[in-house]
Amino acid sequence: MQRLGYELYATGSTLNAIVDAAIDARPVSDLTGFPEMMDGRIKTLHPGVHAGLLARRDKPEHMEALRLHELKEIDLVCCNLYPFVETVTRPGVSFEDAVEQIDIGGPTMIRAAAKNSDSVVVVVRPERYAEILTALHAGGPDLMMRRRLAAEAFAHTAAYDSWIAAYLHGDDAGFPQELPFAGRLARRLKYGENEHQRAAFYAFGPDPGGLGSAQQLQGKELGFNNIQDAAAAFQLVSDYDQPAAAIIKHMNPCGLAIADELSRAYVRAFECDRTSAFGGIVAVNRPLDRTTAEHIVQIVTHVVIAPEVLDESTEVLARRKGMIVLSVQPPRRGLFDYDVRSVPGGFLVQDWDRAGFDRAACAVATRRSPTDAEW
Fold first, then answer.
1. Domain check: are 19 and 159 in the same one?
2. Is residue 115 annotated as part of the catalytic site, yes or no?
3. Whole domain around residue 65: which residue ranges?
4. Same domain for 155 and 207?
5. Which of 7, 103, 280, 323 is most buried, judging by how many CB atoms fall within 10 Å of its CB?
6. Which residues contact 207 (CB under 8 A, 6 or more apart)?
């Protein structure tokens, strides 16, 4: 940056890190003429920063205002926000610690730079650094890249605010008047339900559990339909305390069974509909052992989901090289703990159904009541 003629300004630990790397940098207080105060809560909220960000270079009166008040133009903002999400997803974090990680100055600078993106480059993701440096060396970024970075910046601060709102709202206050969601891109998908539809998979936060944190152990690239079916199968077996196996195809169960052993549960599920099980999705709620794996690979299966895949079963599953195998842990009850369904023009939201099977709540509609074994 310095070789390109930029002067660097930074605050706090960022400034220290730059200086420790033997790079010349100056404190932001040199721009504001005002020291940091209130334990760092006030650092960049000052015309010395925001006038330089928001001044339109094509408006002479804006540039004259900068000159009149002896303020500098700011041409690039690179900002990583306080780790609020990482803080509130840790167990046992106090309200005071969470609130102190709500960044105010950072989002304000990002939004100001993004609003004036024709003149100011805004960078919010470290993975963009190399791309931005290349563009700067080539005399850019061009207008299209600036607009793309601005969109990414506004999305970044919107997602950040969504987490703050969800945390402050809490679990027991009912549904809020406005309900934003903050998803992180987990993977881009080749296509959606049909080949002409674009698709992507987003996760709630850094480690939400469930399919948002799934580890793929083998197989081809996951697709949109794979994830939908995997979710249905995973939720189905999660309802049971006993060893359970489910086979799903096109969001419909081909088989579901419980037993005292996982392999027996799978065989029973398979016997429900041998034909439809071909090319299906299998989920189990116990570590996948070799015996169960031997049964699964007897037919074409697209996806297998288990909380753990034992070493003894990996070589068996590898016989079906294209078969996707996922290790999936239960989802964490996070801040976006809703079951959401899209409808034309909106979306439906409800609590997750965690009631499970309650024998006492069932009404027998036949002349004969089920035996204990049948229950």
1. yes
2. yes
3. 2-169
4. no
5. 280
6. 89, 213, 332
